[in-house]
Amino acid sequence: MFELNDKTAVVTGGGSGIGKAIAQLFARQGAHVHVVDLNDAACVQVVREIREEAGRVTSHACDVSRQADVEALMATIGPFDILVNNAGIAHIGKADTTSEEDFDRVMSVNVKGVYNCLHAAIPQLRANGGGVILNMASVAAWVGIKERFAYSTAKGAVMAMTLSVAKDYLQDGIRCNSISPGRVHTPFVDGFLARNYPGREAEMFEQLSKTQPIGRMARPDEVAALALYLCSKEAAFITGTDYPIDGGFITLNT
Ligand code: NAD
Q: Where does the Ketoreductase domain lie (predicted)?
C-alpha cells in the first residue's frame, strides 16, 4: 500500500521542513521526485540526502511567485503525475499593521505561487491522463490565527483554489485536495521564533506547543505520511477536500 512506483512528483518548497519530509517519503515509496525551492543550496542538499538512500530525485531552483520561471521549470520537468504545492512563507500582523508590501509578498508566494504551479502543471497532468494535486493550507484558514492576517487570508485562498480545481478537472482524472497542518516543528517555526522572540525561543516554543490540544507540535514526517496517503492510489475516492492534521487544534480548543 501507498507505493508511488513509476510516479513522478513535483514538490515545491522541498528544501526544508514539510516539503523536505514529503520529498524524502515519496522517493522512499518509489517516486522520482523533483524538488523545487527558492533556496538552491537547501534544495541541492535535500537531493543529496535522498540520493544517499538511493532515491530518484532532481533539484530545481525556482521562485514559485514568478510565472515565467514556473512555466519554464514545468516544461523542463516534462510529464509528471503528482504536484505538491507546499512552498509558503509566514508573516505576523493584523489587518491594520500589515503593510501593503508585506501583504503583496505573502500573496505572491502563498497564493500566486500556487496559481502559477497550477497554471503550468494542469495542462501536463491532463495530457498525461490525470494526476493528483495536493496544496498546503493551514489551520489558519479554518479558524484564523491571531495576528496572522495576510497568512490566514492566503491559506483561505489555497482552500478555495483546491475546491475550484477539484471541480474543474474532475473529468480529466485530476484529484485535488489540501492539508491543513497545525503547528509543525520546522525551520519555518524556528525562524519565526528567532525573529520575533530573540532570547526567548525555548519559552515561546513551549507556549506554542501547548496551544496544540495534543500538547506538542507535529513532526514533518507525520504531515508527509498524510500527503503520501492523499497522493496514492489508495485515496482514489478522495477529491475536493481538506484534511486537518492539527492535534485537535480546530475542534478541541474551546
Ligand atoms: P519551511 O520554511 O521550513 O520551508 C518552506 C520552504 O519553501 C523553504 O525551503 C523555502 O525556501 C521555500 N520557499 C519559500 N518561498 C519560496 C518561493 N517563492 N519559491 C520556492 N520556494 C519557496 O516551512 P514549512 O514549515 O515546512 O512549511 C511548508 C508549508 O506548510 C508552507 O506552505 C506553510 O505555510 C505550511 N504550514 C506550515 C506550518 C508549520 O507550523 N510549520 C503549519 C501550517 C502550514
A: 7-173
Q: Is the pLDDT of residue 185 over 90?
A: yes
Query: Ligand 1 atom 4: the closest Cα is on which residue?
Result: 16
Q: Is 197 a catalytic residue?
A: no
CA of 86 to the centre of ligand 1 (A): 6
Contacts of 76 (CB under 8 A, 6+ apart): 60
Cβ of 42 closer than 6 Å to ligand 1, yes or no, is yes
Instruction: Residue 124: name the closest of 178, 177, 184, 83 by CA.
Output: 83
C-alpha cell at 218: 507535529
181 C-beta closer than 6 A to ligand 1: yes
Burial pattern 175-184, b for ≥16 Cβ within 10 A else e, equals: bbbbbbbbbb
Distance CA 191, CA 201 (A): 10
Q: How far is the CA of 171 from the centre of ligand 1 (A)?
A: 31
- Does the pLDDT of residue 196 top 90, yes or no? no
What was the pLDDT predicted at 188? 85
Gap from CA of 15 to ligand 1 centroid (Å): 9
**DSSP H or E run through 119:** helix 112-127
- Alpha carbons 162 and 172: distance in angstroms, whole number: 15
Nearest to 37 by CA among 18, 9, 15: 15
| ipTM score assigned to the predicted complex | 0.99
